[in-house]
Recover the amino acids of this structure.
């Protein structure tokens, strides 16, 4: 495990006492976890580069329990780290110091599914893949999909505004999330869950929590619009010199195959594509997607990974990769560029045998300055969390940052929710 050292000091929150544990035990009996072995998995992030030292993990089952916990923590000035599937990429999902981990793992109930509109209402701790299965049995699909689907929770997806593999087709969660229930830092339950598709009654408050990374409230339930399950799915995997995976989905298999074949003939004739394969069979489709979905896992086995998640103009998407291969030379094991081409989202990953300050110095602030020079985003879909909070100013002006701080102060005046995350430390 690589523990990076960050210049961050613990803020003056209270320390969890025996009385606190007893109070939690009354709210969530049998679900106050203090066993260090169980806590280990929740203190370390998926990438294994950030580690907290929380001594308590709470597993509420209901929104009321979450409200009780937060009301108590607010009064006692105890810091809280909301946690879903712990698959986040920016160190936002684990404590920095001894924050209480508030897990949604047991909040995993589907509340309702409307099989005419495709509206799914569920608790925040439902695992994405399980939701996919639930709605597919009813002729729909989830509007988002990602490699972490087997572990990530829908609440975590909303909290990070996850992009993923269907973004190009179905758009962002800012469009597909219809309503949210959120518990605020002081324990207030904000029920904006049952919202019709069209609803212009005042400010759209739910949008504030989509992508807020657990810093403004704990999402306890989600209402989300699921598109109908496509009757025909085609996947093409084309080569040279890049690999491109394309999925088409529609309602008439023959018509869709014809369109895809026309496209393939055209790109083969033009020389743009030299080889490839297509699939309609479910198992082959899955196998092709696995090649894409498992890249991050493969990279994490290659050594220490420096991860960047950038939005760039599509025509310049790969320039930084070739540029960095020259800049880093043999210092880097691999400089890899993959991502979501249709969204203009590059995942730039550099690996080295072990963490090296000189590689980091060659990468930062160079990568961020390069991105800002293209008016891109230094966090396209993973958020800022703990690891990236210091770079927000490459993509947002001071006025925006000031307003974000004001919103944080309004919704969480004591700053107990996910401290040290998303917004940079104040001087
Ligand atoms: P966690 O990792 O537990 O938490 C993430 C953040 O959300 C933290 O700040 C946490 O405090 C907060 N949070 C979690 N639950 C709540 C809640 N109920 N209320 C308030 N705050 C909460 N991301 C993409 O955008 N696109 C991808 O394609 C993609 N692919 C991935 C593939 C792999 C293999 C892995 C490991 C990760 C991938 N990710 C991707 C990143 C990650 O899966 C997403 O960010 C995901 O949405 C996180 O969900 P989670 O439940 O694991 O949240
Ligand atoms: C992906 O697109 O595979 C994810 O965002 C994860 C990653 O960037 O490693
Ligand atoms: Zn991605």
């Amino acid at each position: 495990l690589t523990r990076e050292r960050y210049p961050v000091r613990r803020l003056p929150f209270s320390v969890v006492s025996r009385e606190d544990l007893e109070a939690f035990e009354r709210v969530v009996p049998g679900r106050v976890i203090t066993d260090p072995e169980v806590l280990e998995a929740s203190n370390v992030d998926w990438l294994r580069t950030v580690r907290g030292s929380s001594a308590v993990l709470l597993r509420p089952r209901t929104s009321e329990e979450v409200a009780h916990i937060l009301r108590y923590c607010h009064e006692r000035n105890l810091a809280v780290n909301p946690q879903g599937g712990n698959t986040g990429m920016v160190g936002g999902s684990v404590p920095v110091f001894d924050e209480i981990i508030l897990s949604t793992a047991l909040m995993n109930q589907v509340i309702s599914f409307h099989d005419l509109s495709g509206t799914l209402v569920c608790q925040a701790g439902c695992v994405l893949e399980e939701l996919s299965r639930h709605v597919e049995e009813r002729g729909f699909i989830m509007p988002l999909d990602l490699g972490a689907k087997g572990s990530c929770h829908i609440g975590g997806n909303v909290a990070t505004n996850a992009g993923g593999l269907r973004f190009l087709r179905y758009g962002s969660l800012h469009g597909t999330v219809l309503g949210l229930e959120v518990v605020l830092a002081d324990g207030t339950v904000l029920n904006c869950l049952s919202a019709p598709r069209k609803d212009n009654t005042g400010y759209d408050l739910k949008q504030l929590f989509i992508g807020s990374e657990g810093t403004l409230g704990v999402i306890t339930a989600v209402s989300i619009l699921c598109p109908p399950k496509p009757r025909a799915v085609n996947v093409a995997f084309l080569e040279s010199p890049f690999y491109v995976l394309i999925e088409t989905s529609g309602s008439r298999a023959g018509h869709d195959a014809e369109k895809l074949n026309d496209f393939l003939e055209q790109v083969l004739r033009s020389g743009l594509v030299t080889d490839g394969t297509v699939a309609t069979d479910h198992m082959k489709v899955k196998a092709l997607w696995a090649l894409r979905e498992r890249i991050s896992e493969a990279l994490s086995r290659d050594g220490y990974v420096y991860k960047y998640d950038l939005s760039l103009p599509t025509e310049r998407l790969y320039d930084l990769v070739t540029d960095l291969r020259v800049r880093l030379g043999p210092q880097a094991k691999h400089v890899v560029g993959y991502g979501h081409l249709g969204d203009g989202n590059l995942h730039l990953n550099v690996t080295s045998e072990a963490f090296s300050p000189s590689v980091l110095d060659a990468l930062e602030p160079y990568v961020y300055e390069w991105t800002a020079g293209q008016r891109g985003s230094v966090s396209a879909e993973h958020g800022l969390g703990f690891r990236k909070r210091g770079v927000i100013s490459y993509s947002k002006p001071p006025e925006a940052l000031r307003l974000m701080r004001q919103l944080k102060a309004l919704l969480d005046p004591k700053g107990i929710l996910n401290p040290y995350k998303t917004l940079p430390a104040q001087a």
